[in-house]
Amino acid sequence: MQQKVEETKARLDHMLIDETSSNEKIHLTITANRELKAIRIDDSLLNDAEELEGYLIVTLNNAIKKASEINEQELANAAKSGMPTIPGMDLFKQLLCTYKQKITYCPV
Questions:
Q1: What is the pTM of this model?
Q2: CB within 8 A of 26, min separation 6: which ones?
C-alpha cells in the first residue's frame, strides 16, 4: 500500500491545475501537490498593487483548493486500494460520513 501511495504522490507532481482570475489578468499553474509552477500577470495590474494583491490571493486560494481536493481524492483512492475488503465496511463508512458531514468535510 505504501508503494501505491508513493507512486500516487509522484504522479500528482505531474498533474497540473490551471487557474485564471475572474478578470482573466492572472494565470496560474499549480501541481496537484500544491507546488506553484507558473504565474502570468497582465501588465495592467502592475500599476495597482492593491488590486494585484487581491486578485492574486483569490486566484492562488482557488488553485490551492482545487489541488488539495484532487490530492486528497487521489491519495484516498491509493490508500483504499491497499485495504482489505471487509463486509459491511462501506455501509459503516457511509454512516460515519453522514455523521461527520454535520461537523466537517468527509472525503470517503
A1: 0.69
A2: 20, 39, 40, 41, 42, 45, 55, 56, 59
